[in-house]
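[step 3/7] inverse_fold.run input=structure_tokens len=340
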């Protein structure tokens, strides 16, 4: 069984943001002493690929009423990250979950997107291999066969960053496009190592009793990972809405981390196919994900550092994914999560 966090391919999706309308109160209620319930605004949030146990905090936030209490009727929409990036950039959508590297790409293409909340506190993509291959450092990838879904997305960014840490290039390894078969390819020795999300391939092999080594990008280069992304128009015209969604998301993440058993049960209700025969594997993926959602020591929850954005922007230019270094201060703001 495989778990896919997302695939980054270009499709055109025409999606909209629907705002809920509030019916007028009947005269007898309007005249009563009962306080009116606060109006809720319908907000769509673009998530990656398909419903997944890995989106547990959002299922928790809906179930526990955190978004409702913030005046938001949250509707989760599933698709492809760079499609949502375009839609947020042109204000067809106001919010999405996206990674820092995609924000850099979007800004370089003229999309006025901005990252406003950090969710994943570690970049979730690793290069993994069977433990008996003894590949534990980037330099040990030289002359090895490395499988990757393709030369796109977060997997490719992580690969290039890890290779650069050892002074290696793609020409120093044997790179094979293997689609989303990383766990099988490593297990069956079709490749020496593969690039995958840490909560996917390595977890699958661990459940099968195969220990792995993992090389994490964060040990060499910090690129802000998945978080909440909006656009400049929404920040300028609807800061209270951005603030409400950020704070409710933070509440949902914190509740998930503090109550993992309850959170997992809530996620299973939202993604029933993750239960039954799949429940043990789903719980392993969920448990592995918790470490990526937990704040780092000394980190203000939800905030990112300008130095990390500067390093990410410079790296993206250095490896040729953007033509010039995007100014770091255009990529993010901490105004909704911390005092700057």
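[step 3/7] decode complete -> sequence:
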């Amino acid at each position: 069984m495989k778990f896919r966090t997302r695939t980054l391919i270009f499709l055109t999706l025409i999606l909209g943001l629907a705002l809920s309308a509030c019916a007028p109160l009947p005269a007898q209620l309007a005249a009563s002493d009962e306080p009116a319930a606060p109006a809720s605004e319908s907000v769509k949030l673009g998530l990656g690929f398909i419903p997944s146990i890995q989106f547990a905090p959002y299922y928790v936030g809906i179930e526990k009423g955190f978004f409702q209490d913030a005046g938001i009727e949250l509707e989760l929409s599933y698709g492809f990250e760079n499609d949502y990036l375009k839609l947020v950039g042109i204000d067809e959508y106001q919010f999405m979950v996206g990674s820092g590297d995609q924000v850099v790409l979007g800004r370089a293409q003229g999309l006025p997107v901005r990252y406003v909340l950090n969710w994943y506190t570690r970049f979730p993509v690793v290069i993994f291999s069977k433990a008996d291959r003894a590949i534990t450092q980037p330099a040990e990838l030289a002359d090895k066969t490395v499988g990757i879904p393709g030369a796109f997305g977060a997997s490719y960014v992580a690969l290039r960053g890890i290779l650069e840490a050892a002074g290696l290039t793609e020409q120093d390894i044997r790179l094979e496009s293997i689609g989303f078969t990383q766990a099988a390819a490593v297990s069956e020795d079709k490749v020496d190592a593969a690039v995958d999300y840490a909560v996917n391939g390595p977890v699958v092999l661990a459940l099968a009793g195969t220990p792995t080594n993992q090389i994490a990008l964060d040990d060499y280069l910090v690129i802000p990972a998945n978080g909440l992304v909006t656009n400049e128009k929404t920040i300028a015209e609807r800061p209270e809405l951005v603030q409400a969604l950020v704070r409710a998301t933070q509440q949902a993440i914190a509740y998930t981390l503090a109550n993992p058993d309850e959170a997992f049960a809530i996620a299973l209700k939202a993604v029933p196919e993750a239960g039954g025969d799949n429940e043990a594997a789903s719980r392993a993926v969920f448990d592995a994900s918790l470490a990526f959602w937990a704040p780092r020591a000394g980190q203000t929850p939800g905030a990112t550092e300008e130095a990390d954005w500067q390093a990410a922007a410079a790296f993206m230019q250095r490896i040729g994914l953007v033509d010039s270094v995007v100014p770091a201060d255009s990529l993010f703001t901490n105004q909704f999560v911390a005092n700057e």
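[step 4/7] annotate
The longest strand covers residues 41-48.
DSSP finds 13 helices and ten strands in the chain.
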